[in-house]
Amino acid sequence: MKFAITDLLGIEYPIIQGGMAWVAEHNLAAAVSNAGGLGLIGAASAPAEIVREEIKKCKELTDKPFGVNIMLLNPNADEVAKVVVEEGVKVVTTGAGSPAKYMDMWKEAGVKVIPVVASVGMAKLMERAGADAVVAEGMESGGHIGSTTTLALVPQVVDAVNIPVIAAGGIADGRGMAAAYMLGAQGVQIGTRFVVATESIVHENYKNQLIRAKDIDSTVTGMSTGHPIRSIRNKMTKEYLKLEKEGADFMELEKLTLGSLRRAVIDGDVVNGTVMAGQIAGMIKEEMPCKDIIQEIMRDATALLDGKRL
Ligand code: TUI
Fold first, then answer.
1. pLDDT tens digit sequence for 98-118
2. E strand or H helix at 103
3. Nearest CA to ligand 1 atom 23
């Protein structure tokens, strides 16, 4: 079994951890990288100097390559884009927009650039702009999503570009990884499963909410604002969806979600907070160390791709 992104990124296993806001901090990123995958620090809406500190702390915990995810809706994105160069970060992934304006600076610094895209059009644009690979992320994912499923999106992106495609959305185990390979993917990005990793600093209420979740327990808010977000259904999503149905304006909706991810991840308020998660939350049964998660996924994917049944 050969996946092209291991050589590209200098890692052992073709598994990238999602750059999740508030969740993907240095402890989780280092644990995934030490386990042979690519850990990511999620810069989310953090100020650039906080991101620099996170990078420094990650370097203390691992000698392996790790990356930074830059969320392009972040007003600090310009500064964060410079910090990754100054700190010698090897890989950048981006979300929620186009990173074209940073591409020259990053390429010159030898940073591998992997935009997360939710459409064929964006994938082609990113290839032309010089991306080294793309993550094709289906709407099964948690957080900010597009509108096409992973099963439909990945092969269409694979057919449209000549750079490696990394599949994301709905992948949590060896079966998902083997399936991604069948679709032509050269690696996978996994978010939700790593939220429940032992090394993840997420509040135990949040982890328990994901362990308890069933297949149909996530919902999508923000369709009306153009920024759809998948999270576990709770009091907050019920109120949000009711307001959306009534035609509430953007500012009124924003009031509900301001700081709501932090409330869930850090304070453990899974009732009024935003419990972002993908549709595979129902598959997660227990907290496990990153190393065991990655070993299990690789063992099962390898067996399946060898033609064995699990
Ligand atoms: O970015 C994500 N997932 C995220 S970001 C996030 S933080 C956030 N908080 C509040 C509001 C909004 C975001 C939580 N989860 N995934 C990668 C991703 N990128 N999914 C979809 C896209 C995307 C969307 C549009 C990529 C490019 C794009 O193009 C922009 C355009 O104008 O077409």
1. 999 999 999 999 999 999 999
2. helix 103-108
3. 96
Share of the chain above pLDDT 90, in %: 96
Note the Cα 62 to chain centre separation in Å: 20
With a 6 A CB cut-off, is 166 part of the ligand 1 pocket? no
Ligand 1 centre and the CA of 69: distance in Å?
Answer: 11
Locate the ligand 1 atom nearest the alpha carbon of residue 72 and give its number. 1
pLDDT number for residue 158: 98
Query: What pTM did the predictor assign?
Result: 0.97
Residues carrying CATH 3.20.20.70, the chain: 4-201+284-305
C-alpha distances (whole Å) from 219 to each of 63, 111, 268, 276 are 39, 35, 19, 10
Decide if 293 contacts 196 (C-beta within 8 A).
no
Question: Mutation test of ligand 1: which of 68, 144, 256 has the most ligand atoms closer than 8 Å to its C-beta?
Answer: 144
- CATH code for the structural domain at 4-201+284-305: 3.20.20.70
